[in-house]
Write a structure and sequence with these properties.
heterodimer; A: alpha+beta; Alpha-Beta Plaits; 2 domains; 3-stranded antiparallel sheet; about 40% helix; B: mainly alpha
Chain lengths: ~200, ~400
């Protein structure tokens, strides 16, 4: 009896409360900080290129096999402006297949992929569910601005070290050639020393 | 009595108008129920079709009418398709004599209360036939349940109507309403009003008593096999009946269109009656949002062991008061006193299991204490009590 009256009072109190319903397309609930949307690729601002090297570990670990990635030699590595030998060439995620499990994020060795806040990617095109590299990078850029996350410069630029080594080796080779050419010339050890110094500075 | 052509035409027009009014009322009830249930559950209800979702029931009805009308291959097709009408026609015919305000009525039958009692029971036949002709075990179970439930709860309704008839000294709805011009009967016989509301809930199969429609047990009862327009007719009948409970409650107990304004103009009278009816309907939906469904044995024992004795008590007290010509407040007192009996018993019985359990535990405690407990080993107790022993002691 008392419980019954209490029940009526409870439902009546709900009548006076504001409904919790949010009318979705017009009204959006705030996205939580740890919301997991579709994966996106982050950009390394210090080298102005994606973190992703196309190592395919995410492609292999993906339980739904929704990703493809192709790697190629990084043109920026040659001139030393990037420390990545390889870089992603094409990357595609089939968003119809993606189950937002986040395994790709966990296995990524370069922290190149993150679960972004993107969740409204429906489109009318049949191919609309394919996210290519440009889209993924732009989403990653958006995610970086949303979270305020920034790439840090690497403490050691492998490319410059390699370049220095190469320069040293070239210099040594040239010196050796010069020495062999001039046989009885003077100090041949100056070039390798300078190369060594350069390596240490780097 | 000879019936002229103009009389017949007028009757047809009035019935047509009544049918349309009832259809609109049923649609409004559908909207009201969905909206109110939504709000009571923290949702918003229909919002998309029309302003505030007002056209949603219309869209639903259109959808139902366009649906393919299927009959199971093993059904008795003639009865299967006639049964919805057998449910709807009594629900509709009752309204012929229900006055909306003064003379705003299709035909005042002078014996309106008796007409209601005799016609409203007929819809049970339709429900049973619907269940039987469907040739489905759920449908037949549901129709058996409906027969048992509706017949049981018809008695308290008739008894409360009898109370009103005794008080008003008439079976005419208009006379009943006129008799309530100063004091509505709910103030004189609150017991009868409560019984009427509960039995009315059961009579139209609203939630605490929706046993013959129970989705989780008999998947919709007699209507399992129905679809499309025929199902819509059942639904229409259900909502018309729900509103009938509201209107009857307003007419018989809340003073109809008379109380609290003695004799308002017709439009205001109509608004007053509709407002009171919708109030009762809102309460019915509110109850639906609150209580779970009863079991069938609970339903039966509640009906036969509580409602029917109480309704008889209401009739007897009313008759005694009228016979001896006691003042009206004595009837109110008697009514409230009788109403207090089940409330008191319920409150007592509610604590019974808990008290029995407490007694049981007390007995166990006595038994346990009677038997001396084995003393714990005396060696370890002091050591644990004195805290960590010095290192040398353990070595």
């Amino acid at each position: 009896m008392i419980a019954g009256v209490k029940g009526l009072a409870t439902t009546l109190r709900w009548l006076l409360r504001k409904p919790v319903t949010a009318h979705y397309p017009e009204q959006h609930l705030p996205i939580q900080e740890r919301y997991m949307g579709f994966p996106a690729l982050l950009t390394d601002d210090t080298a102005d290129e994606p973190f992703c090297t196309g190592c395919m570990v995410c492609v292999r670990e993906c339980p739904t096999q929704c990703m493809t990635a192709v790697m190629h030699d990084n043109p920026k590595f040659v001139d030393g402006s990037s420390h990545r030998r390889k870089i992603i060439e094409t990357f595609e995620i089939n968003l119809n297949r993606c189950i937002l499990c986040g395994i790709c994020v966990d296995v990524c060795a370069f922290d190149a992929i993150e679960m972004s806040y993107e969740h409204e990617l429906a489109s009318y095109a049949r191919t609309g569910a394919r996210a290519d590299l440009d889209l993924l990078l732009s989403q990653g850029r958006k995610y970086m601005t949303q979270t305020g996350w920034q790439a840090e410069a690497p403490d050691r630029n492998v490319a410059e070290i390699a370049l220095a080594k190469k320069a040293a080796a070239d210099a040594a080779k040239a010196a050796a050639a010069a020495a062999s050419a001039a046989e009885k010339s003077n100090e041949p050890a100056s070039a390798p020393e300078s190369a060594k110094e350069e390596e240490e500075n780097a | 009595m000879s019936v002229t052509l103009s009389d017949a035409l007028e009757l047809v027009v009035r019935l047509f108008l009544l049918f349309n009014v009832l259809a609109v009322l049923a649609l409004s009830l559908v909207w009201l129920e969905r909206k109110e249930l939504g709000r009571l559950q923290g949702r918003v209800g229909p919002t998309r079709v029309g302003p505030f979702g007002l056209l949603q029931p219309l869209a639903d009805g259109l959808k139902l009418l366009m649906k393919e009308d299927i009959a199971p291959g093993s059904s008795v097709r003639l009865i299967f398709f006639v049964a919805p009408l057998l449910v709807f026609v009594p629900a509709f015919v009752v309204w012929v004599t229900i006055p909306f305000a003064g003379d705003l009525v299709v035909r005042n039958l002078e014996l309106g209360l008796f007409f209601f009692v005799s016609v409203s029971v007929l819809s049970i036949v339709g429900l049973v036939l619907a269940g039987w002709s469907s040739n489905s075990k759920y449908a037949i179970l549901g129709s058996f349940r409906s027969a048992a439930q509706l017949v049981s709860y018809e008695i308290p309704i008739i008894m409360t109507i009898l109370v009103v008839a005794i008080l008003a000294g008439s079976l005419d709805f208009v006379a009943v309403v006129d008799a309530q011009a100063s004091v509505p009967y709910v103030a004189i016989v609150p017991l009868a009003f409560v019984i009427f509301l509960i039995a009315g809930l059961a009579e139209v199969g609203r939630t605490p008593f929706d046993i013959y429609l129970a989705e989780s047990e008999v998947v919709g009862g007699p209507f399992v096999e129905y679809s499309g327009a025929h199902w819509a007719i059942f639904f229409l009948a259900e909502y018309v009946n729900t509103f009938l409970v509201g209107v009857l409650g307003a007419l018989l107990f809340l003073g109809g269109w008379r109380w609290p304004f003695d004799d308002p103009p017709q439009l205001a009278a109509l608004a007053l009656l509709l407002g009171k009816s919708y109030l009762i309907v809102v309460v019915i939906f509110w109850v639906r949002a609150t209580y779970p469904r009863m079991r069938i044995d609970q339903l039966m024992s509640f009906g036969w062991k509580w409602l029917i004795p109480l309704s008889f008590a209401a009739v007897v007290t009313t008759a005694v008061q009228m016979f001896y010509g006691w003042p009206q407040w004595t009837l109110t007192l008697m009514s409230l006193g009788i109403l207090a009996v089940p409330i008191y018993l319920q409150l007592r019985l509610q604590g019974k299991p808990a008290r029995a359990l407490a007694r049981h535990y007390a007995e166990i405690a006595v038994l346990v204490e009677a038997k001396p407990r084995p003393e714990p080993e005396p060696e370890e107790e002091p050591e644990a009590a004195t805290g960590p022993a010095p290192e040398g002691a353990s070595a």
